[in-house]
Design the sequence.
């Protein structure tokens, strides 16, 4: 079975469940670069990962490139066992969880073994250009301005890139969020799409939306006092 047949026989096309999700999907289709922000449960990672995987299986891209800022809470990847792929596995796992909604574990292992899915840390990105690829950066709110600039300039011919993040959950020590600055500077640029998802786009358990609303209300109350 070819990649195209695998994609079409196992699952239908990607369909958004809200107006903003549909806008997100169209942005990925119509633009070279899409920057997406939104809270947990809005489909930021799912839509990006699924778009890339189905494109790969349908031969639109030769490779999926995955990256994510390594911002850690009291731990160091140097203490994790194995090579760089093993060290990055816990960080990239959420993306692979989304892949598994559209294909089998054995297929993913085959694609990784063929180099069709590659994990590239920011530290190993300098000097590279990704051609005919779908590049996905998850948790982009934790990237520095230098990292974001490095990533954006790796875009090669016939490639697309998606940067997704939740600006309310930045783990940067400084508390700054360079992803917002990048979005503001690139908004309106041709071939760059900006998508803002909200709590109304949450499609997980309704309890998540209620939790986020309560926490946001508490945050506003603390600021006012």
Sequence:
């Amino acid at each position: 079975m070819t990649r195209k047949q695998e994609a079409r026989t196992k699952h239908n096309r990607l369909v958004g469940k809200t107006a903003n999700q549909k806008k997100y999907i169209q942005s990925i289709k119509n633009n070279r670069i899409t920057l997406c922000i939104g809270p947990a449960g809005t489909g930021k990672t799912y839509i990006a990962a699924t778009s890339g995987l189905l494109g790969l299986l349908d031969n639109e891209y030769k490779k999926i490139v995955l990256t994510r800022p390594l911002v850690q809470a009291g731990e160091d990847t140097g203490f994790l066992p194995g090579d760089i792929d093993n060290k990055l596995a816990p960080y990239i796992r959420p993306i692979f969880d989304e892949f598994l909604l559209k294909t089998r574990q054995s297929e993913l292992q085959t694609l990784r073994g063929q180099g069709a899915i590659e994990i590239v840390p920011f530290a190993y990105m300098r000097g590279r250009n990704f051609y005919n690829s779908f590049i996905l950066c998850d948790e982009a709110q934790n990237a520095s301005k230098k990292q974001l600039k490095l990533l954006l300039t790796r875009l090669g011919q016939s490639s697309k890139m998606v940067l997704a993040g939740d600006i309310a959950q930045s783990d940067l020590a400084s508390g700054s969020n360079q992803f917002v600055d990048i979005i503001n500077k690139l908004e309106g640029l041709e071939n760059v799409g900006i998508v803002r998802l909200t709590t109304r786009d949450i499609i997980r358990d309704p309890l998540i939306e209620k939790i986020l609303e309560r926490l946001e209300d508490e945050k506003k109350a603390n600021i006012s006092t």
